[in-house]
Amino acid sequence: MTENLTKETFLKKVFNFEEHKEWKFEGDKPALIDFYADWCGPCKALAPVLEELSNEYAGKINIYKIDTEAEQELAAAFDIRSIPSMLFCPVGEAPQMANGALPKTQLVQIIRDVLKVEK
């Protein structure tokens, strides 16, 4: 199940950018964060794919969603200029950003290569 994050939950579960200038991942397992908006067609198309991945990788990765309209400060903090944008957060390494509604096969490849997680 994907989980929607607010700024408050993001600071606790992903990265407290108010305390740390350098990236410091707060999560205990890798995360995929989807920056989206309700009016965005490609975002709506991506949502069921992320739910599938959430079920397939349950207990191995966390999949979070951030509504860029409601959480404009978070979107600005990551310089989100187009949506959907996804932030892949491995444990102990720098995050990587991907833009666009990527197909599931490509998302699985990024999960394997960047997050270093197999199904």
**Percent range of helical residues:** 25-40%
| CATH-defined fold name | Glutaredoxin
Number of strands: 5
| Relative strand content | 15-25%
What characterizes the major β-sheet?
A: 5 strands, mixed
Protein name: Thioredoxin
InterPro entries: Thioredoxin (IPR005746), Thioredoxin-like_sf (IPR036249), Thioredoxin_CS (IPR017937), Thioredoxin_domain (IPR013766)
GO cellular component, one term: cytoplasm
Pfam families: Thioredoxin (PF00085)
Fill in the keyword field for this structure:
119 residues, alpha/beta, Glutaredoxin, 4 helices, globular
Set out the fold topology.
Blueprint: E1 3-4, H1 7-13, E2 31-36, H2 41-56, E3 62-67, H3 72-77, E4 85-89, E5 96-99, H4 104-113
Parallel strand pairs: 1-3, 2-3
Antiparallel strand pairs: 2-4, 4-5
Overall description:
33% of the residues lie in helices and 19% in strands. It has 119 residues and is an alpha/beta fold. It has a single domain, classed as Glutaredoxin (3-Layer(aba) Sandwich), CATH 3.40.30.10. It has a five-stranded mixed β-sheet with strand order 1-3-2-4-5. The longest helix has 16 residues, at 41-56. The protein is globular and about 35 Å long. It starts with a strand and ends in a 6-residue tail after the last helix.
